[in-house]
What we know:
With 185 residues, this protein is α/β, with parallel strands linked by helices. 39% of the residues lie in helices and 16% in strands. It has helices spanning 13-26, 43-58, 75-87, 100-112, 146-161, and strands at 9-11, 32-35, 68-69, 94-97, 122-127, 140-143, 169-171, 174-176. Strands 3-2-4-5-6-8 form a 6-stranded mixed β-sheet, with helices on both faces. Strands 1-7 form a two-stranded parallel sheet. β2, α2 and β3 (68-69) form a beta-alpha-beta unit. α1 runs parallel beside α2 and α3 (75-87) packs across α4. The chain is elongated, with a radius of gyration of 17 Å. The model has no long low-confidence stretch (mean pLDDT 91).
Amino acid sequence: xxxxxxxxxxxxxxxxxxxxxxxxxxxxxxxxxxxxxxxxxxxxxxxxxxxxxxxxxxxxxxxxxxxxxxxxxxxxxxxxxxxxxxxxxxxxxxxxxxxxxxxxxxxxxxxxxxxxxxxxxxxxxxxxxxxxxxxxxxxxxxxxxxxxxxxxxxxxxxxxxxxxxxxxxxxxxxxxxxxxxxxxx
Length: 185
């Protein structure tokens, strides 16, 4: 609706993508695949992919388009993406998944093909859903702080009601390191 106050509050997905890939690079991973949707319907996944690409290039690596598998945020889609990456024949030693559900599917595909996560392939997700800590192996992920988001949203709503201007807000994600990346074996 035109001329109505509005507000944008979201996770800094580009930063999150960079944090994940920089972490994998520090662990010695050099062939990092990406599993997630590239559709305009998934702008947050596109932003996470941009962070992935930015981090690789900053470290002197050119992303390999053959190491990109399209997937929506479902475990079954992640499983399919994992198989697609494996069947490509292109070597990879890590997968950054645009969501935790995709990452869980990727891990299952890797395990079904006899690979060990994280020894053979490190896997990292995004969101820190409740089951991420209890998955096997426990999933390294970028956490979106929903408590901070809720507090900011309420505060900004109060400002809008009072007629005050509110700027778009990006919330920095936090990397939660668990076993799936290989840092805690």
